[in-house]
Amino acid sequence: MVLGSPFHFYSQAQYFKSNRSSLFPSSIPADLNLSPPLSAAAAHTSTTASLTSSRHSIFRIKLLFTLFVGFKSGGGFTSSSLRASFSYCVQQVRSYDYHHYLCLLELPLNMRKAAFAIRAFNIETARAMDVASDPKIGLMRLLWWQEAIDKIYAKKAIEHPTAQALSSVIHENKITKGWLKRSVEARINDARRESNEIPEKIKELEQYAEDTASTILYTTLQAGGIRSTIADHAASHVGKASGLLLLIKSLPYHASRNRHFSYIPTEVAAKHGLLSKQGGQIELHLDSRENLCSAVFDMASIANVHLQKARELAGKVPAEARPVLLPAVPAQVLLDSLSQAHFDVFDPRLSRGVLGLPPLWFQVKLKWHSWRGKY
């Protein structure tokens, strides 16, 4: 089981229907299929359906053109297969990590190609255990990616679209190998954890979030040519907040698979009466929904502290680095949704829209922060 893998929760397809448009220019790969989320809201208004459809098509073409030009200007494609690999990365992010997909669209054109490849790599490793029918197969996938990173840096060819795109980005931007290895190794160590093994302290979960979420932001900053200790410091806090909050949201999913809340640290569980001993082993049990909500509140409070620390640094973060830190916005949205649900992770409102927020309103909030240069 991969600790805190958020990608099984929702995909863009759950609340939007995407259709290929005959209006796509032939020079743009149709498999990008980037239909805007606005269509879901517009579909409810039949009286303006025709006008909405026209605007929808125009917006799709504009978005596709922007992404495509951004990819070409960021170093160019050397072959049609590499172009297809980057298209695949876009689709993966759009399907399995939609709120971050929207964040990446706010990046400057010259950073998008690298950002999509890096984020797609994160999806491949985060979903490895979830898509495998046998945990051993999932672990083998992660070990394959660990070896793939070594091969990429040794300039060996790998027949996998995400690996091909990542290889291109790594060699164009000279991305530090250690960050990518650190991410994969953290997931491998977690995959080897037994379902009834419970972290003792929340610091362990913070470290996991740092190793998996923060490193993605570090590599994106580096790919954009941004060298700033302050930006890295802010990215560390944003990654920890995002990782912790998505882990909290994933609690019902993990409990449904192994019947344990094994990702609530024992120090938090003991404080709220969620620990019990059976056969000499410590286990977490949901004897009280109220106690569980209190435990979730404590964990969410740690994430909130990281968000506040990241924003305290905003005035010193270089302007060009702030779009990379936009994942702080969906983290805040999820924190607010949890608060409105009284930190009940079983509240169905958390699974609606984008992290509990209507899709259109989420985009407005994200665009507002981007336009103001905030995160």
UniProtKB/TrEMBL annotation:
This is NADH dehydrogenase (Ubiquinone) complex I, assembly factor 6. GO terms for biological process: mitochondrial respiratory chain complex I assembly. It is found in: Mitochondrion inner membrane. The keyword RNA-binding does not apply. InterPro entries: Isoprenoid_synthase_dom_sf, Squ/phyt_synthse. Keywords: Membrane, Mitochondrion, Mitochondrion inner membrane, Transit peptide. Belongs to the NDUFAF6 family. Its main location: mitochondrion. One of its GO terms (cellular component) is mitochondrial inner membrane. It comes from Cannabis sativa (Hemp).
